[in-house]
């Protein structure tokens, strides 16, 4: 397909002047054409440059594409014709006060004043309405009732509000409101000294430390002379797969607990701890903080560590297989998982679902296979798609990926891994440059997009956690479902509040 968008590569920096700068009508038309013909939105955001506001879109087909445009104060919403732009347009409206005319559901994303101090397009009074008082979506009818959950939840959980419209026990609509802990992290990343960037990246979403750290490190490497050696690439890949296993095992255990099948819940809780301790052995931190840095890794893997990891994985692998078999062969579990919270492939495509949530709906996309980084180009990453789009499919994808990730880790540790570990030294960024990095974190496609100015400073740092795509998938899963199945569906996605509330 011929397009005015520029083809780019994952993790390869280009000069900003190479990015096609299109008239808005052409930009609008080309973006709709690409996504309307099966492309996906990786990024669509606005940024200030020299007193003006510009738009930039990174789209993906079988390659990555980028183009930009000057931003009008108002424009015909892309979402009207192409649903995957839905969340991105709302975010632009909130951050820069630019109105997408005709947007079907123009509500705020994180509830903060826009960065330009121009009149708000949502009509909020920020002195009184943080995180925003507005009329929730309502269903009319004498027998309709609403159920409100959160934003304060029982136990240790981040804040989020769930508003159900119900008739009896049946959910007609679930509206999710986030934004209660907006941290301004994207703005902070443009203000701090460059050597603090990796530390901030680790805190974007604590359960995705490796995924976000890797995107950050790759972006800095693209802008600088830092280059990881082959051993560091293997160790980084092992760390990302360990993070995937840790969270998938924990989720299977939580799903077991939600259907009151306690043996797998207890087994998975213990085994998740085993994999967290493998990360501890590898880098001194169970969540892999302080491990990945521009140019490589902070800790090397000697033969003692490698052999210990091999022994632990050999020991635990049959245990995990046994627990997975127990979970999926139990009829009472299958009866709760199957046909619960179904999302069609068509709806998943329109919502832009990624990761296990997308693969459970028959979308096989996996960054590790499609846009490989680190050691992934040398690994065989299978297509893990399931056709049913229900809780069972989301659990099954996780179970399959656990066993596959174990196999991948074992294959990478057959031979000694040698690397020269790096410290947290100073580095400078290339001026007037652009890079986008994407990786397959455990929830799906995580991406960082960075633009620098002529003075080697970060002009715009855009983060996209997979939860940004997938929260609306949870809402869709609850349509025409019993409200008592909300905890089960919620856990089958296990999305991030802090990864969304940037």
Helices and strands in order:
Blueprint lengths: L5 E3 L5 E2 L5 E2 L1 H13 L3 E10 L2 E9 L3 E7 L3 E3 L9 H11 L2 E3 L42 E6 L11 E7 L2 E8 L7 H5 L7 H5 L7 H15 L6 H29 L3 H22 L8 E2 L2 E2 L5 H26 L2 H7 L7 H7 L3 H5 L7 H4 L20 H22 L20 E9 L2 E9 L5 E7 L2 H11 L3 E2 L3 H8 L9
Parallel strand pairs: 3-6, 7-8
Antiparallel strand pairs: 1-6, 2-14, 4-5, 5-6, 9-10, 10-11, 11-17, 12-13, 14-15, 15-16
Helix pairs in contact: 5-6, 6-7, 6-13, 6-15, 7-8, 8-13
Contiguous helical run count: 15
Q: How does the major sheet shape up?
A: 5 strands, mixed
Instruction: Tell me, briefly, the overall form.
Output: globular
Tell me the strand percentage band: 15-25%
Can you count the beta strands? 17
CATH domain class of the largest domain:
Mainly Alpha
CATH superfamily of the largest domain: Cytochrome-c3 Hydrogenase, chain B
Sheet/helix structural class: alpha+beta
Share of helix, binned: 25-40%
CATH topology of the largest domain: Cytochrome-c3 Hydrogenase, chain B
List the uncertain runs.
none
CATH architectural type of the largest domain: Orthogonal Bundle
């Amino acid at each position: 397909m011929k397009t005015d968008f520029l083809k780019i590569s994952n993790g390869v920096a280009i000069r900003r002047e190479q990015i096609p700068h299109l008239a808005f009508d052409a930009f609008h038309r080309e973006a709709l054409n690409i996504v309307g013909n099966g492309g996906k939105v990786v990024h669509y955001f606005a940024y200030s440059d020299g007193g003006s506001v510009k738009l930039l879109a990174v789209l993906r087909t079988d390659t990555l594409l980028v183009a930009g445009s000057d931003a009008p104060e108002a424009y015909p919403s892309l979402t009207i014709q192409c649903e995957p732009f839905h969340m991105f347009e709302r975010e632009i409206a909130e951050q820069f006060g630019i109105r997408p005319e005709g947007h079907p559901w123009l509500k705020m994303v994180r509830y903060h004043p826009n960065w330009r101090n121009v009149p708000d397009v949502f009509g909020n009074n920020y002195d009184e309405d943080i995180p925003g008082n507005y009329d929730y979506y309502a269903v009319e009818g004498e027998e309709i009732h609403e159920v409100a959950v959160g934003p304060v939840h029982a136990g240790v959980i981040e804040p989020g509000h769930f508003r159900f419209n119900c008739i009896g026990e049946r959910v007609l609509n679930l509206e999710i409101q986030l934004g209660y802990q907006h941290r301004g992290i994207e703005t902070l990343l443009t203000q701090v000294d460059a050597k603090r960037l990796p530390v901030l990246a680790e805190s974007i979403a604590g359960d995705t430390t490796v995924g976000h750290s890797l995107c950050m490190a790759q972006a800095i490497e693209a802008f600088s002379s830092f280059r990881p050696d082959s051993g560091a690439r293997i160790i980084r890949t092992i760390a990302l797969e360990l993070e995937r296993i840790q969270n998938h095992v924990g989720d299977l255990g939580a799903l077991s607990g939600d259907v009151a099948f306690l043996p797998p819940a207890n087994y998975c809780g213990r085994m998740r701890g085993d994999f967290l301790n493998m990360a501890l052995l590898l880098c001194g931190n169970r969540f892999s903080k302080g491990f990945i840095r521009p140019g490589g890794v902070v800790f090397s893997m000697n033969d003692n560590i490698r052999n210990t990891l091999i022994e632990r994985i050999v020991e635990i692998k049959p245990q995990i297989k046994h627990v997975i078999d127990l979970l999926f062969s139990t009829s009472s579990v299958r009866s709760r998982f199957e046909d619960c919270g179904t999302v069609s492939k068509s709806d998943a495509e329109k919502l832009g679902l990624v990761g296990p949530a997308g693969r459970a709906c028959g979308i096989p996309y996996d960054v590790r296979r499609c846009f490989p980084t680190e050691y992934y180009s040398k690994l065989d990453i299978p297509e893990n798609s399931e056709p049913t789009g229900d809780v069972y499919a989301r659990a099954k994808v996780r179970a399959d990926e656990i066993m596959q990730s174990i196999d991948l880790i074992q294959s990478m540790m057959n031979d000694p891994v040698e690397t020269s570990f790096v410290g947290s030294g100073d580095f400078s960024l290339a001026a007037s440059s652009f890079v986008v990095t994407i990786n397959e974190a455990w929830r799906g496609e995580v991406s960082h997009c960075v633009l620098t100015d002529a003075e080697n400073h970060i002009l715009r740092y855009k983060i996209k956690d997979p939860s940004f795509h997938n929260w609306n998938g949870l809402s869709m899963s609850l349509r025409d479902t019993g409200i008592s199945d909300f905890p089960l569906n919620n856990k089958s996605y296990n999305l991030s509040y802090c990864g969304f509330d940037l």
